[in-house]
Amino acid sequence: MLMEELLSKLNEFQKLLIERVNLEHELVELPKSLITQEEILTRTKKNYQDKKAIFEQLTKKVNALRQELDETIIKIEKLEKNMDLISNPREFELLNKEITDATMKENQLRKELKAEEQKYGEAESEVQTIESLIQRQEEEIQQKKQKIANDEAGFKARIAELQILEKQTTKDIDVEILFKFERIVRSKEGIGIFPIRKNVCTGCSMILPPQFVNEIQQKNKIIFCPYCSRVLFYEEEKSEQPGAEIEFGILSDLEELQDFDDSGDLDISENDDDYNENDLDDEE
What we know:
With 284 residues, this protein is mainly α. It has helices at residues 3-82, 89-169, 175-187, 210-217; strands at 193-197, 200-201, 206-207, 223-224, 231-234. The chain is rod-shaped and about 135 Å long.
């Protein structure tokens, strides 16, 4: 396979891979917003239980005050009827005092009842408001669950399509190259191929040795940057851009960074897990 064709296929694979990685990320993120809403609903229900308990206590207290007030009013009415039957001054005085005390109690009960009824009305309004809020939140969560289910189905279907397209695009490419290239794309935020211009890797802005650049210019093998690990290809500089700042680096001993084979090729058949592109001085 010609190098131009191989790089073209890697570029196409990179596009497909980026879309798939983004979709996989979306699949992970989708339920998180639902989790947040469910946590809010849980807190709302807890608040509802607290308010409902207060409301129930006020309901009992208001009912008790109303009952006591009714009993006091009935008692006063009976005492007042008995006043017509009393002829003894002493009994009249005692009965009158009893009526006075009962009347004072009635007034006090009415005052307490009014205050508690106000609290009762406020508590009832809060409970009704929270009940409506809970209902809305539950409806929103149900709608969100349905949307997530639909989105997940669509994402998974598209991911399956992308995986098929990836296999078709890369069927003639060495699996070790693909493995390493995919790791690079994932770790470098979707960019795994960069040109070199004037002996400089445009991915990390590091100067490369002339011999290394000559290997790339020959276009007969895949070569990775020893600094940022990206796939490199040679591109002629059309016009110099003044003011561009380049971070220089010296690659005095390339064997300390990457292994080469007998032909000067960059060894990409790494089988151990010690490979880590981040160990190279990535100067992005």
